Amino acid sequence: MYLSTVSRPEVTEVPDRLKRRVSGNVIALGAVSLITDISSEMVTAVLPLYLVVGLGMSPLAYGAIDGLYTGATALLRLVGGYVADRTRRHKTVAGVGYGLAALAKLGLIAAGNSLAGIGAAITADRAGKGLRTGPRDALITLSTPEDQLGRAFGVHRSMDALGAFIGPLAAVGVLMWAGSQEFDAVFFISFLVAAFGVVVLVLFVRDHREKAKPKAVDIRAALGLVRHKGVGALLLAASLLGLVVVGDGFVYLLLQKRGDLSMGWFPLLAVGTSLVYLLLATPLGVLADKIGRAKVMLGGYSALALVYLALIGPIDGIALIVLVLVLYGFFYAATDGVLMALAGRVLPKELRATGMALVQTGQALAYLGSSVLFGLSWQLWGPTAACAAAGGAVAVTIVVTALIFARVNRSVQP
């Protein structure tokens, strides 16, 4: 089951011996993501511990902060995508986003124990991510032949996952060096790493320049994008799938408790997920190009349902930890880059960054709602009931989304 093309990128023909290679621009973007993810995951790995254990947040309060971390800057995702399409300066817009996210790490230090300050710093960090993600992913599609998009996004996400693998290890190293409660040291080192990522972007990433003058992009065309064949249904499917993702922090907090893992090892849970993601992102991207991207993506969400059920199942200890981290890593590898590769075949070229930002915005807003609802369910009925409900919701959503993708496939057939 996959979506047929609506608008194909205009790419230069390459010899057969180069057809399976990923462009240098994709590798450069992957290097920027690798470095930036080291910085981001240093913070992400300690943030649940810092907020829930260090500051004593309730599950509901943490759910609100966690949802804010991904969902509250949805408008800026659209702004970033539209400005990149309008100006054709994808690299510049992405660079602003990377720079803002780097500065946000200093904001966490300045915030201290203030929840309002922490929320503002997190919002700034996610604003940076919102600005950069659409233009960056559009650059990947504009630098890659259409039939190789799964491979390109798989390689990029593998490099991104390598950063996510290193980040928590770096956070543990900093805490061992500076002291187990010295979170500010983690935040400062994270800022330095993120700043280096911006330097790499400026020096090595090339913007996509067309020889012919591009078609003008106006606000009316951007607003009408959802009426483009297949785009509205893709947005609906992505939003429904985003609504059943409760967030890493909740999964790791439950896994730490069920796995009887000491707090000092907590950041390494993210390392396990990232390792599986790193190993599987490229193979699953290649598989998606061959058998259909929607199939691989829905397989990833099936693994997510098993994660939620495993957290309330009979398995405990190290066996549970290994099972959940493998399934969780598979989920990310099968969904993150694959969704953008799928979108790249549906979105019109002149609105590629805007369209990708639109899809990501739908997921981000859905994620904001899911985090708050899961936190509320946990607080009212306990984690067992919350996980059971989440697992059931994933199963229902997979069926509904499969039907949506089938309908889109029929509607976009030439």
UniProtKB/TrEMBL annotation:
Organism in which the protein naturally occurs: Actinokineospora terrae
At the highest ranks, the source species' classification is: Bacteria, Bacillati, Actinomycetota, Actinomycetes, Pseudonocardiales
Membrane protein topology class: Multi-pass membrane protein
Family annotation (InterPro entries): MFS, MFS_dom, MFS_trans_sf
The highest taxon in the source lineage is Bacteria
Domain Major facilitator superfamily (MFS) profile, by residue range, is 25-409
Please give one Gene Ontology molecular function term for this protein: transmembrane transporter activity
Q: Name one GO cellular component term.
A: plasma membrane
Specify the protein name.
Answer: MFS-type transporter involved in bile tolerance, Atg22 family
Chief localization class? membrane
Report the subcellular localization: Cell membrane
Q: Which UniProt keywords apply?
A: Membrane, Transmembrane, Transmembrane helix
Q: Which residues cross the membrane?
A: 161-179, 185-205, 230-253, 265-287, 294-312, 318-343, 364-382, 388-408
Gene3D superfamilies reported in the protein's UniProt record: MFS general substrate transporter like domains
The keyword Membrane appears for this protein: yes
